[in-house]
Amino acid sequence: MKIGIVGFGNFAQFLAKAFIRQGHTLCATSRSDYSLHCSELGIHFFRDVTALFDADNDVVLISTSILSLSEVLRSLPLDRLKRPVLFVDVLSVKEYPRQALLEVLPEESDILCTHPMFGPQGAKDGWRGHNFMYEKVRIRNEGTCSNFLQIFASEGCTMLEMSCEEHDKLAAKTQFITHTVGRTLGELEITSTPIDTKSFQTLLQTKETMMRNSFDLFYGLFIHNRFARQELENLENALRKVKETLIQKANEEKEKTQC
């Protein structure tokens, strides 16, 4: 397939290597100049998104940040499309890009919302066993859609078809909470000690992994997942409950010793 990538940051570069290895033809565009890096990978880099649309791709992959999605979609030269193509997003939230793509894209364009739930750090040894979520939002050309999904299936991903709504409900309880806990541990400035337990080392790894991600990603997970705010409140309430339970137990023990 011919795949055009809009937004060629670290994650898109990570995906592109597998696409190339499987024999697909790639071109890319991005705000930053990745022409040298693309040249090394065998990818045609366009500074102008219009040139990418003129390249007549089978698939247009949207790999922008969550916060810049709306602006990027508004800037797409959709009038330059020569034929119906498959638009795919790989954002970490799903209801938001689903709605945005439906609002912006022409009716004849196919839409596949996906979330490869892994990245360059966690999947540096391969994608096998890692989850790949997708929803066929609007698909007429099943062949192109199947060919794109096969990229991930052939790499050994666990393919999970579910609605964007269900994804965001689950992701708020898992991905967003993990980012929140990692950021909270970062605020605590926890560091390794001579008496670390394995559990504490896991917490350290969580903190370090989450803090390597941009704050914009964390904010995007919060502001564009309608279930995240409730999970944040649940976390606050849970911490308050644990604190209250400890204090209550301490007071009960104190009363026993005074009797």
Automatic annotation (TrEMBL):
Organism: Acacia crassicarpa
An annotated GO BP: tyrosine biosynthetic process
InterPro entries for the chain: 6-PGluconate_DH-like_C_sf, NAD(P)-bd_dom_sf, PDH_N, Prephen_DH, TYRAAT1/2, TYRAAT2_C
Keywords of this entry: Coiled coil, Oxidoreductase
Coiled-coil segments: 225-255
Lineage, opening ranks: Eukaryota, Viridiplantae, Streptophyta, Embryophyta, Tracheophyta
UniProt keyword Cell membrane, yes or no: no
Name used for this protein in its record: Prephenate/arogenate dehydrogenase domain-containing protein
PROSITE patterns xref list: PDH_ADH
Record GO terms (molecular function): arogenate dehydrogenase (NADP+) activity; NAD+ binding; prephenate dehydrogenase (NAD+) activity; prephenate dehydrogenase (NADP+) activity
Entry superkingdom: Eukaryota
PANTHER family (alphabetical): AROGENATE DEHYDROGENASE 1, CHLOROPLASTIC-LIKE, AROGENATE DEHYDROGENASE-RELATED
Domain Prephenate/arogenate dehydrogenase: 1-259
